[in-house]
Amino acid sequence: MIKLIAVNVSGQGVTIDGHAGYSGKGKDIVCAAVSVLAQNLICSMEALTGDGITYQIREGHIDIVFKDLSEKGKLLVDSFFIGICKVQEVYADYIQIR
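The structure corresponding to this sequence follows.
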């Protein structure tokens, strides 16, 4: 079984599905990195912008939905994208960005 985190970043949101399978549960640094980046995006959007977002977090899935982002919101999404791309550069076998 191939395990992979699929990250889809669009103008309407960010969706993350799957598990990296880099290491065992609780020790998977790839899953942890992706999770921290996504949760930081959510917290930063709520704390630093007036942008309306909705999100859902469950085992193996994070869905963040937004529309009409402010400049601050766009900057935060761009920052998330840079971070996720850097993780993917190092762990290319475990993350697919679409």
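The CA atoms of residues 10 and 56 lie 16 Å apart.
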